[in-house]
Structure prediction request, 373 residues.
Amino acid sequence: MSLQQGAVESLSVSSPSLGIIANPVSARDIRRIIANASNLQIADRVNIVLRVLTTVASLGVKQVLMMPDKGGIAALLLRSLQREKNLHHTFPKVDFVDMQPTSTVQDTLQAVRLMHAAGVKAIVVLGGDGTHRAVVSELMRLGAQIPIAGLSTGTNNAFPEMREPTITALAVGLYLTGRLNDEQALAANKLLEVSINDGQRRDIALVDAVIATDHYIGARALWKTENLAAVYLSFAEPEAIGLSAIGGLLHPLGRRDAGGLAVQLCQAESVPQVQLQVPIAPGMVRDVGISRWETMPANQAFTVELSSGVVALDGEREMTFNAEERVTVTLRENAFPTLDVARCMQIAASTGLFRVSSHLSSRSFEKSASRSH
Prediction:
């Protein structure tokens, strides 16, 4: 791939400080068909990346490493960077990791490995819960404490917060340029560890691990509430969309609160203790019967009661199990770091990190005034 001279080349001697993983196919699952949800187009994703690039450049970030793709983000981004350069916008140097994209989750995993090897200090992720889970899973496998900053471009997004990308990029830039340290900028996050037969198979969920009576992976995305048996949650926010909203509307639990939540759903022949109306997808509210619920202390394994079925991780069917297999779900605290954007911006505002000195301000005003005459 090539851009203007010196803009996109092979990796240079200087180390990139920021990685960007933009999933071109997030928000294209079956829930987009059965619910009245919009689909974020490639041009919209590229515009998000452009806003991130110009914002971090304004704070002094010089080099960015991106994941290539076959979905059109990389190609359109290159054209857009050339056009925007002619409008005198400032961008960091943009490189693409050396890999052949396959349009599968393996692209994300490989990009994380290559970014880690290149020494990035943070990763901005454009995608839904599944994309963020893949990034975190690979970072944990590598033993890397690289913080991520999430930008929501998926269907049911409980993990990446809905926020203007410019603000997220400002927080990232403050951290990467040393204006904010780890203690100020980063937050520790919980997750759920799912284990089958004492670790013979193991995976994680950032928000929810759902047990369903299905016996197949199928279309992956889980949305039929009548097939649900239990929901395990690392956090549960009442304003969420998706299966985590079951817990959010039943027993709210914050991202930074201790513990998790285990909810057993009522089967068709039983009388529920609580009946909830839950927004399980954009524009789709369904009745969900609850039989009981309890908090999940950290590091305590909860045994799944259903004899056989499927485990959906952050909304997607991932693991099937049978009557001879034991499935447990365990909450892990302080599992991985993210950029705490709200706290970064609060500290930046209260300590004047965005203030320009009066000397510079007066000079800028004088230049502006002279031009106007």
User: Anything to note?
Assistant: The chain has two domains: 18-179, 190-334.
